Amino acid sequence: MAPRKLSISLVFLFTLFSLVKGHEGVGDSGKYPIVVSTWPFLEAVGAAWEAVDKGFNAVDAVVEGCSACEELRCDGTVGPGGSPDENGETTLDALLMNGATMEVGAVAAMRYVKDGIKAARLVMQHTKHTMLVGDRASAFAIAMGLPGPTNLSSSESLEKWSRWKENHCQPNFWKNVLPFDSCGPYQPKDNTGFNKGICPEANSVRIIESRTSLIGPRNHDTISMAVIDRMGHVAVGTSTNGATFKIPGRVGDGPIAGSSAYADDEVGACGATGDGDIMMRFLPCYQVVESMRQGMEPKLAAKDAISRIARKFPDFMGAIVAINKNGEHAGACHGWTFQYSARSPDMDDVKVITVLP
User: Fold this and answer.
1) Rounded to two decimals, what is the model's pTM?
2) Which of 38, 222, 238, 244 is catalytic?
3) What are the residues whose beta carbons fall under 8 Å from the beta carbon of 213, sequence distance 6 or more?
4) Residues 163-222: pLDDT tens digits?
5) φ, ψ for residue 105 (rounded to 5)?
6) What is the pLDDT of residues 229-246, one digit of tens each?
7) How far apart are CA 47 and CA 61, in angstroms?
8) Distance between CA atoms of 109 and 49, rounded to whole angstroms?
9) What's the rounded Cα separation, in Å, for the pair 1 and 62?
10) Alpha carbon of 278 to those of 120, 152, 161, 272, 301: distances in Å?
11) 222 carries an active-site annotation
């Protein structure tokens, strides 16, 4: 009996050892770590890569990458000092999602605190909520140790706002109001078309077309970053100062899980950028991840999500980058040429991939 027991014990130990090595092999497979991000934000991807390559987990690597972009004020559309609203003020939106636990932390319309992604991490780490907004988000972030209150405007953002005011606040995000060619104050129009028998579909087309002058890579941009760490865990994060000349209080897709970004350890991740007011109505990143779950490759999943929006809003501008657990990544876009950045073990440096509409 003793030799039999010994044999069984050896088999058990060998099996256990194989399982442990197999789990460790996830991190040593050559596929991981991986970092992808919207736009050619090379320094941000480099910062995330440096962190995850040193052994940081995916969540912390995303924070490192997005924080770098906030500090650099990438394209003037991330972090403080850019995208003034109608009152000339800069506010921040940010999101962080852990694909292992499905926890989310987000802040929206946050004033006086320059560290958007770190504030989002504090929401995820120290509250049972998903999102905090406005002045209360600022107070929470400062109470939890982030610097503030800080004026988030800059000389550049205030100069941009002044020029916009001199141009009679055109273009703007109002519709069906009077006066339509000045800075307001605005009041609803009586003859919106819906009250006068005008075809609603025709009116909606006019509204969609009027958005194209407001949206572009330099005035409506987001860093949306995904990281897969050495253990195969996935996280995503976003940071943006929103749409330039937005109506105060506006929140776009940046802090909305499933819209600007989504992650699931079982599948992969997605990041999005563009006209957030339109895109958030479709939850494109949730759609992408669920499509990949059903077996779609990243390129087809991204194209499918973009096409769903384009069918309803043919003039919208937006883009998606998708990555699955096999390390395959791809992008899709509509209305503009899109670029995203990536770094993986088989690359010597950050690579920029161009995606045509």
Assistant:
1) 0.86
2) 222
3) 171
4) 999 999 999 999 999 998 899 999 999 754 544 444 444 444 444 444 555 665 555 578
5) -130, 135
6) 999 999 999 999 999 999
7) 8
8) 29
9) 55
10) 23, 26, 24, 12, 19
11) yes
